[in-house]
Amino acid sequence: MKDIKLSALNLVPIREGQNDQDAINDMVNLAQGLDDLGYERYWIAEHHNAPNLVSSATALLIQHTLEHTKNIKVGSGGIMLPNHAPLIVAEQFGTMETMFPRRVDLGLGRAPGTDMMTASALRRDQHHGVYQFPEEVEQLEKYFGPGNQQAYVRAYPAVGKNVPLYILGSSTDSAHLAARKGLPYVFAGHFAPQQMKEAIQIYKELFEPSDVLSEPYVIVCLNVIVSDTDEHAEYLASTMAQIMVSITRGRMQAVQPPTDDLKGLLTPREYELAQQRFAGSLIGSETSVKEQLKNFISEYGEIDELMAISYIYDQDEQLESYQRLQNALKS
């Protein structure tokens, strides 16, 4: 497990009592902390019409983070292609690659990152973008490729920049695409673990070597909370449970402080769902999380990188969780 790289995903949530600017400041502070710890990459999500998240203008947030960090790679987890013309995406990320060489990642998703009504307001082609995902990934590969393989329309200054592309997925569909194109595959196990095992197997079995990769590269995103004891980690995880329930209730509330009375806040069904989410997460002390990760690998197979998303109310404890995760893998 010592060879597994570590990275982080951030949805730029607003904590209770904070505003949009505070959330962006927290985003930068966490990135700087992870940069100091030597984390591999830091990705920022794309979500729209979510009052508790400030991650709608993903490219702007990536640039802002790059400007305030030194070494960590910063990218999108992901850019939702149905919402964007590939030419514009290539121009934006080609520009960032020009400004911050070899530090920019482009994770690509085929979902809109929002509800259907908002998706209708976002989409440039009204509902066909999801089905054009494979073709639009190919367009991006061409835009970032060498000049002698370009058509008349070029995404300056992206030409020849070779910004690395990653295929995001929460089902088996994207696994086929990532394997066929020989691109790295990132599975969203933090919110959609149901098809994770099958998707990873499909990707590994069908992988075709490319100019980018000679063998499969698997990144799995999981909810991770590591503390000094199992009990305190479970206490901190009550924040994550409240976030999950607020989504199912349609409230989209700000990140709440942890509570000792999670059962009292949730219905029996909600509490059961929270426990199921906990079971699919890495929550506990360093020793416990190391064992949980061993069990995960035993069930799902080897992974190359663990991308952690950690909903923890206190910023210092959030950074400490990432440091303890690093300790767990190195020990």
TrEMBL record:
Domain Luciferase-like intervals = 19-295
Taxonomy, superkingdom: Bacteria
Known Pfam families for this protein? Bac_luciferase
Q: Which family does it belong to?
A: To bacterial alkanal monooxygenase alpha and beta chains.
Check the record and name the NCBIfam families matching this protein: oxido_grp_1 (TIGR03558)
* UniProt xrefs under PANTHER family: LUCIFERASE-LIKE MONOOXYGENASE
What's the protein name?
Luciferase-like domain-containing protein
Originating species: Staphylococcus caprae
